[in-house]
Amino acid sequence: MTRKFTLEEKHKLVTKYFSGESVRSITKISGVPSSTLYSWIKL
User: Fold this and answer.
1) What is the pLDDT of residues 11-42, one digit of tens each?
2) Angle 29-32-33 from CA coordinates, rounded to 5°
3) What is the predicted pLDDT for the residue at 37?
4) What was the pLDDT predicted at 24?
5) How many beta carbons lie within 10 A of that of residue 15, not counting itself?
6) Which residues 6+ apart lie within 8 Å of 14 measured at CB?
């Protein structure tokens, strides 16, 4: 089953990336696939 992330949750994860946290650690903690996280970062 897929999980929908709210805009706030997406923003929080992208902010973590731009503050220096690695994609691997973000995806490990949140369960978001790295490909999805990269697509959010591009927006």
Assistant:
1) 999 999 999 999 999 999 999 999 999 999 99
2) 120
3) 96
4) 96
5) 10
6) 37, 40, 41
The dihedral region occupied by 6, where left means phi > 0, alpha psi between -120 and 50, and beta the remainder, is beta
Using CA atoms, how far residue 24 sits from 1, 17, 38, in Å, is 22, 10, 11
Burial class (CB in 10 A: 0-12, 13-18, 19+), 37: buried
The 8-class DSSP code of residue 6 comes to: P
Task: Enter the tokens of residue 17.
Answer: 């990336």
Angle at 15 (CA atoms; ends 32, 17), nearest 5 degrees: 60
Predicted pLDDT of residue 18: 96
